[in-house]
Amino acid sequence: MWFMKSLGKGAYTFGDPVYVEDDYLIGKCNENCQKIIFLPKHKNIGSYNSVLIVQIEAYIIQKYERDWIDRLGFMSQELDCIYSTSQALESPEWTEDGVVSVKTKDFDNTTSHKQCFSVDGKEVSVFFGISRTGSGKVGKPPLELHSEMFFEFEKTNDYAFVLKLWRIAKCFVQYLCYRKNVNLSSVEISTPYGEGKHEKFAVLHIVNEDVDNEPETLEKRRYIKQEYISGAEGKILNDIAEDRIYLRHIPETYRAGKSINAARFVMITAAFEWTFKKNYPDGITKKSATIKAEKIATEVLNGLVNDSKGKLREIYKFLRKLIGSNSLQNEIEQAGKDFADIVDIFGKHLYSMNNEKLKYSEMGLRLSQQRNNFAHGNLDKDFIGLSLLDLIYLEYIVYAMQLKEYGVKTTSIQQAINDLFGCSIALQSVSTI
Length: 433
Fold this sequence. Notes:
The chain is an alpha+beta fold. It is 37% helix and 21% strand. The protein is built from 12 helices and 15 strands. A 9-stranded antiparallel β-sheet has the order 3-4-7-15-14-8-13-12-11. A two-stranded antiparallel sheet has the order 1-2. The protein has a two-stranded antiparallel sheet with strand order 5-6. A hairpin with a 2-residue loop joins strand 5 and strand 6.
């Protein structure tokens, strides 16, 4: 009867909501007495047959009880590819009598340089490394290598902060794979241990994080390698943490990314416009004559606004806002001009395979018209078939603009696009910085 309010003898109704007072709940496993920390999905408490129900987003199982957390270690199949485990091996030696000698490189030679980003005012370091695990068990390989992405920070016992770091890490891997179904379902948690050392003492598990794995995407190398963005990891993660990079257009799965519906069409064009505004805060470059004409038009409309009332005044104010605004077509023309050295090699190849020529003005016109048809519900308009080709190419341009902003080299951006979208273009002869 905790949740019920008495109306009279034998009559009840639902009472006031009941909430979880703390940010986390603490329990203990009966089998091994290990401490479990539950992170609720929200504060509301439900009930069924007098049983309290709290929805859990994640939980932490502690092998040892410790007070502080200062490092998270993420592992997944995607990270094994993004930061290739093969780089940890020296060239194996083979002999004719069947002896194979395999030697791993040391930790210093298999660990990337630390980069920094900020989350809620706290500095976090990110770097990649390769773990080695030996086993003598039947059915287990004698040596396993796995890539890990590490987040290090000042010691804390703020579990909400830890969970936020997991979300940021997942978005980062999704960005590098251009699909949302990446697997970061468990995270190793470490505590300070001596001078600059760390002790693994717990594992973070995410509830209902099982995803439809697509191993074929990794076999086809549809991901951006860490070496392509080396030095820019912190900048990308910082923008993810501050929600300053557009990721809403990333498809749920690789297969879903191969099909386009009205929603994805609009989202991809929105990703371009968001990224364009970030790269061009002052708008597109305009000729002096255009700037002069816009100034005169603004002055005329200012007078009309001041001399009118009611609905007419609102119309004039709306028209004044349109002056100087960039159209999607003009933005695509500008981006095509400024990023031609990076993306033209892909665009020309893509359009030539379809017996078309790459013209940014025509591409921008088709995309803007089709986007408006979808956005405004103009279902009676014929679909502009070539706009699908334009949209595929626009995905390349979005990544080019984003990676260029983070300081990634032209050749590395081209390699990233080539791998991520399976363009199969030989890049040996491309221009370098």
